[in-house]
Task: inverse folding
């Protein structure tokens, strides 16, 4: 009986996940104007990513929907959401923290840049590491360096608007470089990853809390159904 109940629970979770994917597909297709085939491919790639890590497929598709509603291209939105997840893991934070930051940062996409208030949500999540700041400054180039010199620090420099969504997106894509199912075989990447992207992905595979373990298992099992 216990096995039957477990099987039924797994089947129910699988059907629920399938329904959520169908809803997400419809929402994203409507928002982006992309073909059903394109949307399904992106969500299949995301499904692999969440099965391999401790992240939740439903939460991430919801965030992708918010990013595309703010004008982001679908493939860019997927890479940005996965990038935030990997950045969170590399910063030592769990899936729940990453989901909160994804939601909070999605609010900035409509403005095209990140203000101090947006960055404060990153600080609250303990993800504002010196490493990510250095990466953003490097990507921001002279505009970033000039703003920091003028205002005496990273936080206050954001008032000059140098941390655009483009700068942020380019850094997030560095976290996802080479991270794909097509490039992954028997638990190893066949090429294309960088030291940064592979290290962050391995960190995302490590469950941070018992809740992460349970959620990751549920997500992977439900995919099987």
Result:
């Amino acid at each position: 009986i216990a096995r039957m109940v477990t099987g039924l629970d797994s089947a129910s979770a699988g059907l629920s996940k399938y329904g959520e994917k169908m809803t997400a597909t419809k929402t994203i297709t409507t928002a982006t104007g992309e073909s059903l085939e394109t949307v399904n491919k992106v969500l299949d790639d995301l499904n692999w990513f969440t099965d391999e890590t401790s992240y939740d497929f439903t939460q991430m598709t919801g965030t992708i929907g918010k990013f595309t509603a703010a004008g982001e291209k679908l493939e860019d939105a997927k890479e940005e959401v996965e990038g935030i997840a990997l950045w969170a893991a590399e910063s030592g934070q769990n899936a729940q923290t990453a989901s909160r930051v994804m939601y909070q940062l999605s609010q900035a996409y409509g403005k095209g840049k990140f203000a101090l208030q947006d960055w404060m949500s990153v600080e609250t999540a303990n993800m504002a590491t010196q490493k990510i700041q250095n990466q953003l400054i490097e990507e921001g180039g002279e505009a970033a360096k000039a703003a920091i010199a003028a205002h005496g620090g990273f936080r206050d420099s954001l008032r000059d608007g140098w941390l655009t969504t483009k700068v942020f997106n380019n850094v997030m894509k560095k976290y996802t470089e080479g991270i794909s199912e097509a490039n992954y075989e028997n638990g190893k990447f066949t090429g294309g990853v960088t030291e940064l992207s592979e290290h962050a992905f391995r960190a995302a595979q490590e469950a941070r809390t018992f809740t992460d373990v349970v959620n990751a298992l549920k997500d992977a099992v439900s995919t099987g159904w």
Summary: The radius of gyration is 18 Å. The longest strand covers residues 184-185. The chain has a mean pLDDT of 87.
